[in-house]
# Entry
Amino acid sequence: MSYDVRSVANFVLDIAEADARQVSNLHINKIVYFLHADFLVEFARPLVTAKIEAWTHGPVFRELYREFKQFGSSAITSRACRLDPTTGTKTEATYKFEEDEAAFLATLARKYIAMTPSALRAQSHVEDGPWDRTWNHESKTNASMKISDELIKSWYERTVKH
# Structure
């Protein structure tokens, strides 16, 4: 089962808050990206259902960018919401992971939260990595700049060592 990207972001924000750490918009996008990559390798399925796009500063989830852009480079102080299709109201995106998934994600989330946004950005920009191959593609068009799960999984299967 894959999860809503906003729910995963809220999980990360809850861990950061419990550990008295701050997370910015750039930071949350990179953290969730790396959690998604690690999850793909460990569980052989996507963590999130959202499209990952190659932007100037690395991989971005448009939903998270929009949700947290009001904070700029400052710490995020609220939680991501989604529209409830049955009521038409915005509600906080909740999460409920399987026990093994939660333990796996919490350990890695703490590792990524402790890293600076610029360090995660640099890590996401590694030469020939998924972002680099999407951003610096050789074809004439890639309007969506989508970083595919296949590209992420093949790269991180070769490079990730927990």
Observations:
- The two ends are 22 Å apart (CA to CA).
- Strands lie at 52-55, 58-61, 81-83, 90-92.
- The CA atoms of residues 16 and 22 lie 6 Å apart.
